[in-house]
Design a protein that fits this description.
By secondary structure, this protein is mainly α. The chain has one domain. The chain has helices at about 5-15, 25-60, 75-85, 90-125. It is rod-shaped.
Length: about 130
């Protein structure tokens, strides 16, 4: 998961040293980085919690295949699997996760482009 550090950006902003950067686009992107990283972390957290919810639901309603108990044979697992996958709560969890995955991918793509642009502008600034 994203674990952003804002120390350098906070120092640049609070000290006023960000004004040493001549490129206004770079200044904007740097000051906006905290929001971008925060959005990514928020989406990752939603996705993580959704996966935990799915895992919890699944393990509560379906046996762990690593162990063979007297009532945990292939026929009973198939029957339980049908029951789990036909349950509306399970289906809604899957649908919710699908939406969370698409949102996380979209935000991740935007954040990556944001970071790529910062790196391009930093290279130009250093020249």
């Amino acid at each position: 998961m994203t674990n952003p550090s804002y120390g350098v950006i906070n120092t640049l902003i609070s000290s006023g040293d960000i004004n040493l950067i001549q490129n206004d686009s770079l200044k904007y992107l740097l000051t906006d980085w905290k929001d971008q990283a925060g959005n990514l972390l928020e989406n990752e957290t939603i996705l993580w919690n959704g996966c935990l919810g799915l895992g919890s639901y699944y393990t509560t309603n379906y046996p762990d295949n690593r162990y063979e108990w007297f009532d945990n044979n292939e026929a009973s697992r198939k029957e339980l699997y049908k029951k789990v996958t036909s349950d509306m709560m399970f289906r809604n969890i899957i649908i919710g996760l699908e939406g969370a995955f698409y949102a996380a991918i979209s935000v991740s793509d935007k954040t990556t482009k944001h970071l790529d642009r910062i790196l391009e502008l930093l290279e130009e600034e250093l020249k």
